Amino acid sequence: MYHEPIFLKPAFQEKIWSGNKPVYHWQLNGNVNMQMDADFLQVSVINGSGEIRVDGKSFPIEKGVHFILPYGVSAFELSGDAGMIVSHG
C-alpha cells in the first residue's frame, strides 16, 4: 500500500487528481531522501533540472524526461530544482 510521502523542506507535493490512481505535483528545491513503499512510481519532469540517485547510481533529470522507479526500489534521493508529475501503483 502506498502512503503519501511527507516532504520536509526543500520540497512539497500537491495532489492534483484523485481517481483510481492519484496524481501528484512534486516541487523539488534542494535535496530529499525518500523511502518507496509503492509498487512503482511513474515520473514526468515538467520544469527545471536535477538528479535522481538510486542504488548508488546517479541519473540527470530535466524538463521533458520521463522515468519509472520499478518494483524493488526501496529508497531514492532527489536533488535539484525541478517540478514533477508523479503517479504510483
UniProtKB/TrEMBL annotation:
Pfam families (alphabetical): MPI_cupin_dom
InterPro entries according to UniProt: MPI_cupin_dom, RmlC-like_jellyroll, RmlC_Cupin_sf
Recorded superkingdom: Bacteria
Gene3D superfamilies: Jelly Rolls
Domain Mannose-6-phosphate isomerase cupin stretches: 23-88
Name the UniProt record assigns to this protein: Phosphohexomutase
Organism the protein comes from: Tigheibacillus jepli
Higher taxonomy: Bacteria, Bacillati, Bacillota, Bacilli, Bacillales
